[in-house]
Amino acid sequence: MRRVSMLGAWLLAATPLAAQWDVSIEFGELRFSGASFDTSTTSEPAALRPSGGGAYRVSIGRWFGSLGVGVGLLYCGTGAVAENEETLVEIKGVSTLYEVAPEALVVLATPRAGGSLALAIGPLYDHWTFDGYDDRNILGAHAALSLDMPLDAPWFGTFRIGVAVSPSPWRMEDLPEGYERRTMWRRSFAAGVRVRL
Hints:
Strand order of the largest sheet: 1-3-4-5-6-7-8-9
Number of strands: 9
Largest sheet: 8 strands, antiparallel, barrel
Distance between the termini: 37 Å
Helix content: under 10%
Shape: elongated
Number of domains: 1
Order of helices and strands: HEEEEEEEEE
Strand content: over 45%
CATH class: Mainly Beta
CATH architecture: Beta Barrel
């Protein structure tokens, strides 16, 4: 019994020491699909969606061994794309995406000394601004894989791929006649640096 109580005391004392903060800065690209669909024709399916573009992301995480929690803040200036099977027309710089994304973190593998492959999953809160239209607030979900490779301690190079799903940022009154709102999917690719504190 004494050994058990001593082990419990040791674990309680060691837990704060095992916890670790990290901060990352990433630059990448967002690509959108879905958002709307033209139901008025079957010969040339058409859609209206955000065009995507370069994105900046800052995140902070708190690790407890191989498990952690974090939050990411993302900014992306986007446009709008109208497309069918033959034609794509893009209007640039007419919208902006601001995002807050809490996430649960788990290390899946350690490919080399000091490196790690981690899964992040959680909800997201998107705030869209559009030129000439009201702002929109949307809730969704996201998941991502990140690979960290050691540089000079405490710095790491980080590479991240992710997917997110949310309702369309368009309202019905935004869309041409015959269009319907669809679930929007987003793919992301990013690289950056991470520092462990």
